Amino acid sequence: MPGKADRNVVEIYTDGACRGNPGPGGWGAVLQYGKHRKELFGGEPGDTTNNRMELMAAIQALMALTRPAVVRIHTDSSYLRNGITRWLAGWQRNGWMTAEKKPVRNADLWRQLEGAASRHQVEWLWVKGHAGNPGNERADELANRGIDNALGRQGR
């Protein structure tokens, strides 16, 4: 969990969740900078996907930063990490088409994420989900709270 981290780095843990895929979804993020900590969450009551919620968690966390920063984003989503670090440049070069000449899924959110990340120096780290990592576990709890709130229920 954040705490032992470099004092000059914002550590962010993100997660997305869906109940059904597609189904109602939520996202959560834990931001830690030194002794400062902020938790964010939100959700969609209608049909969305886990991948969209993973993207939303990262977008919202980066947008919450008030000035450019050095950031480490910890995610259990290979889709998010690979998309931003490996696939994005090719999608842009190909006019937002995949190598198979199909439209990129979630292009609207990839564009938002690119814009949100461009203000910062971001390192994208993969963590194993549901494996006891406190930051990842808390982000998952927040994502599920986002679903509950979107559905008009009290927290889990």
Automatic annotation (TrEMBL):
GO terms for biological process: DNA replication, removal of RNA primer. Its EC number is 3.1.26.4. It holds the Pfam family RNase_H. The keyword Coiled coil does not apply. Residues 135-156 are annotated as: Disordered. The keyword Hydrolase applies. Monomer. This is Ribonuclease H. The gene is rnhA.
